[in-house]
Design brief:
With about 450 residues, the chain is α+β, with helices and mostly antiparallel strands. The protein contains 16 helices and 12 strands.
């Protein structure tokens, strides 16, 4: 199942027409409300299911009816079988740093060594973070000028805290839904349209204060100038944390060694697997290209001048410039992958679509990433003649109380409970539930 299949099944089940407007949302242990708006969000749904060992996910369908809305739920079963760990948890650990805490000094140490690794390549690297303690100041000192994204899910949580004791969960959910549209808006015109709705609902003073704290170019799709490949949140961090959940409880040296062996095995397996691929792009990107090509068939292409085309359907028209690789929908620039309008123009010009896709998506580049294996370590002939050969532990101050064994949760991670009145996941119970029960379809 993919996002398109889910949308079609919902339209068929509830007999929605093409003019009916609705959106999807679900709950996870990290966020009480997560909006399901595109294929990437759908993949993240199953990523969360894998991380938190969820056997099924309840997706709520919210249908707009005039000024009100009604909702119902569908259950996506067998999450474990639908997750391909290599697709959705396919991170590539580039550099790791083991330290006692997140401080500005430790971040400076990490960023300086990371810069020494990346700078010779001459590439502009896009970073995404949760604006952790000491991170922002250290980043500006070392990587000043590099694109830096703020995680959307953490921003949602920060915004929701502005309304603590100022409104019920329904008000907060409505504000977060409008903030979602602001953050995901592809054009500046769409951004300011949704921002006006957000200010009307959430209060201009509160929203303006929140916006001033986070520069637009660090979180808004419409204003971000770098290459973000469609990424809005750093959920990949949770994937890595879950991947090494057992190793994190070990002493530092054992944790480092076990993590190294785990990565060594992963790189070897992926290197062997990639040698069997026969397509130009990785299987995941070939599938994505096929889906976009299928969507492009409904468009008509009209040539304007060299490399510039107008792409139309029954409702909208788009301007595509193949020389600058831009489309007026801005999704080509945001995702760094041709949108359906661009692919229609490329095929209309009788050009090869593969020439307009970043080489980083090719199977050749994938194989190059894993062509540098982690070398095994041998200590059979190791000998120590003096105490100078030992690595002594850091001098750290012992804190009061029992040592913590669990990872410190980041902002936005809050345990959810299921209300026995409305049967929804959230931070309320039967006594504090304000959900209207007569709104179910």
């Amino acid at each position: 199942m993919n996002y398109s299949d889910l949308i079609q099944s919902i339209r068929k089940r509830f007999k929605f027409s093409s003019n009916d407007s609705f959106h999807l949302e679900y709950s996870s242990p990290a966020c009480s409300f997560v909006y399901l708006d595109n294929e990437y969000d759908f993949k993240m749904l199953f990523c969360y299911a894998k991380i938190y060992h969820m056997d099924n996910v309840v997706v709520t369908v919210v249908k707009d009816v005039g000024k009100s809305c009604s909702s119902t739920s569908v259950v996506v079963d067998d999450c474990a079988e639908m997750i391909d760990e290599n697709d959705y948890l396919g991170f590539f650990p580039l550099a790791l740093c083991f330290c006692d805490s997140e401080t500005e000094e430790n971040w400076l140490f990490f960023f300086k060594n990371l810069k020494a690794l990346l700078e010779p390549q001459g590439r502009i690297i896009t970073f995404i973070s949760d604006r952790g303690v000491g991170l922002l100041k250290a980043f500006d000192l070392i990587f000043l000028g590099n694109p830096h994204l703020y995680c959307y899910h953490h921003l949602r949580y920060n915004l929701s805290r502005k309304y603590k004791n100022k409104g019920g969960e329904i008000v907060v959910a409505d504000v977060l839904q409008k903030f979602f549209k602001v953050a995901y808006a592809s054009t500046e015109k769409s951004f300011y349209f949704h921002l006006k709705n957000l200010r009307d609902k959430g209060g201009a003073a509160t929203i303006d204060e929140f916006i001033r704290e986070i520069p637009l170019e660090h979180w808004s799709r419409a204003f971000f100038k770098g290459c973000r490949y469609g990424i809005m949140a750093n959920g990949i961090v949770e994937s890595f944390n879950n991947w090494i959940v057992a190793e994190r409880s070990l002493p530092p040296f054992a944790m480092l060694d076990q993590t190294r062996m785990k990565e060594m095995k992963m790189m070897s397996e992926r290197s062997v697997e990639s040698k069997s691929w026969t397509t130009k792009f990785t299987p995941k990107m070939e599938k994505r290209l096929k889906e976009q090509l299928d969507r492009s068939r409904v468009f008509r292409v009209i040539a304007s001048h060299e490399n510039v085309y107008e792409v139309r359907n029954d409702k909208y028209s788009y301007s595509v410039d193949l020389s600058t690789r831009t489309c007026s929908c801005v999704k080509w620039q945001i995702n760094c992958f041709p949108c359906a309008h661009a692919l229609a123009a490329i095929q209309g010009a009788r050009l090869d679509v593969y020439d307009f896709i970043d080489p980083y998506f090719t199977a050749e580049y994938y194989r190059m990433c894993y062509s540098f294996p982690i070398a095994p370590l041998s200590n059979v002939d190791a000998s120590c003649s003096s105490t100078e050969d030992f690595i002594l532990p850091l001098v750290t101050k012992r804190l009061v109380g029992r040592p913590k064994s669990k990872r410190i949760a980041s902002a936005g991670e809050k345990k959810l409970i299921r209300c026995c009145r409305c049967n929804k996941m959230g931070h309320h119970n039967k006594k504090s539930c304000t959900e209207p029960l007569n709104m179910l379809l």
